[in-house]
Design goal:
This protein is of the alpha+beta class. The chain has 20 helices and 23 strands.
Amino acid sequence: MPIRVLPVHLVNKIAAGEVIERPASIVKELVENSLDAGATRIEITIEDGGKKLICISDNGCGMDADDLSRAFVPHATSKLPSEDDLFNISTMGFRGEALASVGSISHAHIRTRRADSPDGGGFEVSASGQTVEEVRPCASAPGTTVTVRDLFFNTPARRKFLRTANTESAHVTEQISRLALPHPNVAFLYKHNGRKVHDLPACESTRQRIGDLFGDDLADTLINVPRRGDETSLAALIAPPSAARGSGKWQYFFLNGRYIRDRVLSHSLREAYRGLLDPRRWPVAFVFIEVPPADVDVNVHPSKIEVRFKNSQQIHGLILAGLRETLNQANLTPSATMAKPDILDELETDQSTAERQNSLRNAMADFFKSAPPPQPHLSFPENYPTGGGETPAPHQPTRESYPLPLDRSPEPQPTTSYEPPPAPPTSDTTSRAFQVHDSYIVSQCPDGLIIVDQHALHERVIYNELKARLACGSLTAQRMLIPQTLAVTPGEADLLAANEELLGSLGIEVASFGPDTIAIQQFPTLLAERGVHSVEFLREMIDTLSEDPAADAEQLIEGVLQVMACKAAIKAGQPLSRDEMESLIARAGEVDKASSCPHGRPTTLRLTLQDLEKQFKRT
């Protein structure tokens, strides 16, 4: 087969495949151009998740006619004057691929005007597929506006891989967060389908920008890591261990103002929290690193999200030392918080005493009218299904059928020396059980002994129970007398709305309570009985749902049920009675995959008599 030179339009389509994965990729490239142009205000407008329309408008330096005529030419850029500058990159963009790639797979249009234009006029140009029109004069405000319509109109194979509008808009929202965080002095306005998602005013501090993006509740908890280092420097805002999340998406690393992902940086952050955090939790951190441009290669990948450090160990040590020192000096004792009685506060402010009493009386009456009848505590009847099937008959829990009565206080364990329990009947192989450090259950079995992680096993039992109940219908729930409120971002509110059916099946109902607040109206009975805080649980659930916006319903349910089971299960350090220990161990033989918890950790270790005899050198 002969070697051919590829036509320009095909080269551009190939380049577009590397640079443009989805609408969020275009937003990233165009906003970076606006930042490089010195813009102090950037407006982003999208429709249908960006598939129908993307419009980026800024008040930057603009372009003249000559510059605009080369805007859609491949590898044309104003940011790389010479070959030597390739190793001293100080701008967000530099490859000259973005606009050419965008024009090759959409209907693109640029309107621009320099602030110092002698005649006060601007220019415009359009590109569509292989066609780039001539530059023509037009009326324009100072700055640049780029409009992109019908993304992938001429590459249907690429277009069919785009997700729903909600999923694509979520990616755009995340991309804007990554661009706005390191540039608090720039104002951002973001709209989707005519609705304002973010209106971020220019501000002086990163903490304020974090509060505008993610809420003051998060921003107020952050601990400042003072700037340290000279040419290579570190500054950060990190959350205490008590504010850790169930997802790693709350870790933001910025290198010279550019969001990056790097394993070395992630490892340094993890190490800084070692010993302070549950290994299954993720610290929240906003880390800003400044490095001389010559000491880092940002040309590793077309998207510029991956970099190569000249001395990665130096960066690792700088982050580890800075964060660990700050954590060691900080007061990390969690503060007790009381639920905010928002509704009562409003009544206190706006109504007289008589009116307030009447409103409370009506609210309680409505609650008891709508509340479901009392439900039995979670129990484990012998014939309860482990998968689909008919709904089981009502079951009244007994001491034998339920390992952990949730409504009683833990029984104190004796502090005197241990006395072996009486010998059990030969048919009962699990009755000789006792607890070690209020966390592990040791029990005799026919060929030796088993050691059970009480939290892990109970978590597996509850997870299987929840899955079986969900297969038969929605989980039992109870309405909240005073709904609890949670501050959410517009993206998180959209995420909850998109998963309304899933939430309902789990027994969770939320409603809008203002522009950036939701109210939890209904909560699963199982979690309420175990004292699980509804706001904290929903926050972790949001993290779970947002980990993979493209996940299917089955994957989402899997992740959420894991969180529910973990929250409802007994904890390490919780004393158990003899009956509870025996009942829990007995359940291990009745549930699927009892050898591991839903997260994959082992629930049980077995030590045979032969193993013991070897250890005591009896063989």
